[in-house]
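# step 3/5: fold
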Amino acid sequence: MNRFFRTISLVLFLGYALIGCSIKDEDPSNQDPVQDGQTSLTDFDIPDNFNYETTQEINLKISSENVSEPAVYSIYTIEEGNNYQLRGKAMSDPEGNLEYNTNFSKHIQSLYIKRHSQGVDHYEVVQLISMIHKVEFTQFSQKVSASNARTLQEADSDNDGIVDALDDYPNDANKGFNNYYPSPGAYSSLAFEDLYPQRGDFDFNDIIIEYNINLVTNADNNVVELDMDFVAKSVEAELPSGFAIELPFHADSISNVTGSVLTGNVAFTGSKGLESGIVASKPVVVVFDKSTDILSGDGPVKSSDHIYITVALSNPIALSALGDVPYNPFIFVNNEREREVHLSGKTPTSKFNDAYLRAGEDVGGYKTVDNYPWGVHVPIHFAPPKENVDITNAYLNFSEFATSGGTSKGNWYTMQEGNRNSNNLHE
């Protein structure tokens, strides 16, 4: 009987989607803008194995000469305009050795790494030319100028082995450092089409999630808490969506989750605050379950308030095991929890209704037969294309990024000249 009703629901949705598309086609205000040289993502051949990834995992193997006590390393990305943004900090072993694994945006070409040791700061600049980098601090490493160096105090108020001047939580022995994705006060973006399992118009503006995720670590570089900040946005979308993240570790490591905004009676949580009915090996945090309840605004771009989610861990997990932020994010559409839409190459949760794989254009892995996606991850703020404007007409180098399999124009989303057509964007 459940299978019967699920099939009926799917048929009704597909009928609604087709009717909705017909209405948009008949409404002149919904027609695609007519422009010379206009393109569509469907004009391009995309390599079959391409997942539209905009980040890459980097393994930093840091060592130091003549160090006889643990050092603190601060990792900064060097952004456009020589702008330094702190990613995070970590403590070395007593010989100054540290292995730091994390994912960086593909447009990042250099890192600035600062070593705090024995009251003196030195730095090295690293060019990201491979996935594994050896960084060696020697007697020739540059000393940080006095105007930029911290005045280190020997006090360690919480006795966690991190001096107060370097400790982001000087009065909490269970916490030591913040590790931000993408950086303090900045946001990355997830942009989705919502007509799944039918493909949409590739403007990727139906539901947009801006996020900042902070992995809070202790003095052993183990994550003890995830502090997540989300803002939802949408451009003239009619279908309600929910948003959630599948985490890459067992629910037994989690003590509680707080902050979920559940107003639609679509998703439900258990005693820990995790979504109920999900296998414990792949727990799910629901951020919100009905976008139309939280979005507001007078213009074409609707926005939510900030949603703050905290995931407290009872069993700390090594930072190196959790660097692939934002893990497995997804939306679920039209008040149907089982109609999940993930990023290309990702897998659905146990609540997904696999009947959608037989009813639409998804051939598996959230890709069409021509490898067009339903979602993209943008590691900076994403200015959404205007309604019905194909992403290739708003972000002019997206097509080359896609057809090259990500080997060219990896910075298609940045403000670099030639990347954007501002007339087609809500900036």
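# step 4/5: annotate
Residues 1-34 have pLDDT under 50 and may be disordered.
# step 5/5: archive (pending)
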